[in-house]
Design a protein that fits this description.
Number of helices of chain A: 1
CATH architecture of chain A: Beta Barrel
Strand content of chain A: 25-35%
Strand order of the largest sheet of chain B: 5-4-6-9-3-10-13-12-11
Largest sheet of chain A: 5 strands, antiparallel
Order of helices and strands of chain B: EEEHEHEHEHHHHEEEHEHEHHHHEE
Helix content of chain B: 25-40%
Largest interface: A-B, 39 and 34 residues
Distance between the termini of chain A: 28 Å
Order of helices and strands of chain A: HEEEEEEEEE
Helix content of chain A: under 10%
Number of strands of chain A: 9
Number of domains of chain B: 1
Oligomer: heterodimer
Strand content of chain B: 15-25%
Radius of gyration of chain B: 20 Å
Strand order of the largest sheet of chain A: 7-6-4-8-9
CATH topology of chain B: Peroxisomal Thiolase, Chain A, domain 1
CATH topology of chain A: OB fold (Dihydrolipoamide Acetyltransferase, E2P)
């Protein structure tokens, strides 16, 4: 699947490296214990600069979603319809992502989802998407 | 005795025997020039730079002022925007503002101009906007710092094909539907009401009346938003002149006074950072502006708000307090926003039917001024004395609310 592929930065490198092993990571603040998304040099809750990368459970709930009938960028032209979602991870952070492996018309808010590693970027990194948990 | 004014204590004067700190802007400044350039074809045959100067010339003529009276220029167009524009105009300023908050920039500029004028930092401020995304290059195509490859938006949102503005707004619409039962028909009614106003505006891009079914039959862009839930892409330009209430009395035009102002932002360009996506900053900026203006909802004759999408208008009406959160769908469904309705809203046709060059907030203010001057023509709201103008920029990121009134409201 063609994608915009943002180059890793010193800040985002640990996230992207973990995706090569199908592992979802985010930073946690060692001062206030809050999880941080997206990667930052400091915690937006307390401005603490002591952050640790930790593995996430990879589960969460769909806060909201759409069905893209017109592609968000030309690279995604062959992918419509596809689902963009905001997923609330169980660690308390909200990510933008896609819901994959499901009929877009069956997706709903508050639906439980689990991370999916089917989207591979050209350099072997993976883009974490989500798919509904079996009920 | 020192007087401490707490953070967030806006909208009231602090009295300790004598006035120490003026914390209200009510009636301190007035809009004395307001013009725009919009074509029913959607295209203007001038460059952005030509339009900017044409608008400033026209707005100053409207006010009966000359460029030599201007001591402050405000613009969003480029790096050091206001300085570059002032240089082209030959203006040496003593206050300046290049604040860029997307579509709410011009409400923020009016707020800042009124504050600067009230504090004696400048006397005549010019605010300008021009964009030609229809006939020229789209200024958003190349992306600014907030959309460049180092931005959070690019790194963490765009790989998922978010892209189009409608994509983010559709996420807000879906959550609003989920939490409150809002329907596509209710959202469509907003577009229908604004189109009714546009049918009375010879400069509007869309003037043909339409039905809810027309909106629902238009192609889906990002479900649940249809094409006719989305704003236009047209050329457009406008300018405002703001000066002190005192100076306004002697000028050519009928002054429209700034009664209240408020600004609030919740996030930058990543909707994932907004928190509750069903409540915009207008829930903060609106009450602040209305408290400063010392008005209640019953006092408001005209509402001009940023309708980038139907959902933007619906949430803004809720956040400004015209109805409770979640009740916006029912509130709009009787057509009260349209001509003859109880709450005349977007009387020029709005960003959905009049014009939308990318940052519609300028036209919100120009139309509010026209209504309060009684220059609305076929779409004039009889006896309009108080208008509320709400800008919304980014992706629901920053709202700014301005309450305007005629001399009778002072």
């Amino acid at each position: 699947m063609p994608r915009i592929e943002p180059a890793p930065t010193p800040l985002s490198e640990p996230f992207w490296e973990a995706t090569r092993a199908d592992t979802l990571k985010a930073q946690r603040c060692n001062s206030c214990q809050m999880f941080v998304w997206y990667p930052r040099d400091f915690c937006p809750e307390c401005l603490g600069a002591d952050l640790t990368w930790v593995q996430l459970q990879g589960t969460g709930s769909i806060y909201s979603f759409n069905v893209m009938r017109k592609p968000g960028n030309p690279m995604m032209g062959d992918e419509v319809p596809y689902v963009v979602a905001l997923v609330d991870l169980d660690e308390g952070i909200r990510m933008t992502t896609n819901i994959v492996g499901v009929d877009p018309e069956s997706v709903s808010c508050d639906q439980r989802v689990v991370v999916d590693w089917s989207v591979e970027l050209e350099d072997g990194r993976k883009l974490p998407t989500f798919t509904p948990l079996p009920t | 005795m020192l007087c401490f004014v707490a953070r967030g204590m806006h909208g009231a004067s602090t009295e300790t025997g004598r006035r120490i700190v003026r914390t209200s802007l009510r009636g301190a400044a007035a809009i004395v020039g307001a013009v725009d350039a919009v074509s029913s074809t959607g295209a203007l045959d001038r460059t952005v730079e030509q339009l900017e100067v044409d608008m400033i010339r026209d707005a100053l003529a409207d006010a009966g002022l000359s460029i030599h009276d201007v001591d402050c220029v405000m613009s969003t167009n480029g790096m050091m925007a206001s300085l570059d524009l002032a240089e082209r105009l030959g203006v040496r300023g003593r206050f300046t503002d290049s604040t860029m908050t997307g579509g709410s920039s011009f409400e923020v500029h009016v707020e800042h101009a009124a504050a600067a004028i009230a504090a004696g930092l400048c006397e005549v401020a010019v605010i300008v906007y021009a964009a030609t995304p229809r006939s020229g290059p789209n200024p958003f195509a190349s992306g600014g710092p907030s959309m460049g490859k180092d931005s959070a938006l690019f790194q963490w949102d765009l790989p998922y094909g978010l892209g189009l503005p409608a994509a983010s707004y559709s996420l807000a619409a879906r959550r609003h539907m989920h939490e409150f039962g809002t329907s596509s028909e209710q959202l469509a009614q907003i577009a229908v009401s604004f189109r009714e106003w546009a049918s009375k505006n010879p400069n509007a891009y869309h003037q043909t009346p339409m039905t809810i079914d027309d909106v629902l039959a238009s192609p889906m862009v990002a479900e649940p938003l249809h094409k006719l839930d989305c704003c236009l892409v047209t050329d457009g330009a406008g300018a405002l002149v703001v000066t002190s209430a005192e100076r306004a009395k002697d000028l050519r035009s009928t002054p429209v006074y700034v009664l209240g102002a408020g600004t609030a932002h919740t996030h930058g360009m990543s909707l994932s950072q907004m928190g509750d996506v069903t409540t915009t900053g207008a829930a903060v900026s609106g009450p602040q502006a209305m408290a400063m203006a010392e008005i209640d909802h019953a006092d408001i004759d005209v509402v001009e708000l940023y309708d980038s999408f139907t959902i933007t208008a619906l949430m803004t009406l809720e956040d400004l307090g015209f109805c409770s959160k979640g009740e916006g769908g029912d509130f709009v469904s009787d057509g009260r926003l349209g001509p003859g309705g109880a709450l005349p809203t977007n009387t020029n046709g709005g960003g959905l039917s009049y014009t939308h060059p990318g940052m519609y907030g300028m036209f919100v203010l120009v139309e509010a001024v026209r209504q309060l001057r009684g220059e609305g023509g076929d779409r004039q709201v009889d006896g309009a004395e108080v208008a509320i103008a709400n800008g919304c920029g980014g992706v629901l990121s920053c709202t700014s609310t301005i309450v305007l009134g005629t001399e009778s409201t002072l």
